[in-house]
Write a structure and sequence with these properties.
By secondary structure, this protein is mostly helical. 63% of the residues lie in helices and 0% in strands.
């Protein structure tokens, strides 16, 4: 009276989408290794992107380089009292 007598349609869709050999017992170590490597890759990628965001400003210049250059320019402007051009 309720539901499909053949079972859930979502379970049937997954069964159609994924090959049956993928879930055999001898494939478990390979699947676990792939999951491990994919997880490690994703975590390393996210970490790298987060680190890049902390060390660079919006235009891609390193924050340290930007500070050093602004200190250099400020030093040149202070030392150049006679407004000479370099």
């Amino acid at each position: 009276m309720y539901g499909d007598p053949d079972g859930s349609t979502s379970v049937k869709a997954i069964a159609i989408a994924l090959p049956k050999w993928l879930f055999k017992e001898d494939m478990k170590p390979i699947i676990y290794a792939c999951i491990l490597f994919a997880t490690a890759f994703i975590l390393l990628t996210v970490g790298y992107i987060a680190q890049q965001d902390e060390t660079t400003c919006g235009d891609g210049i390193s924050l340290e380089s930007k500070k050093n250059m602004s200190d250099f320019i400020a030093g040149v402007m202070v030392d150049n009292d006679s407004n000479q051009r370099l």
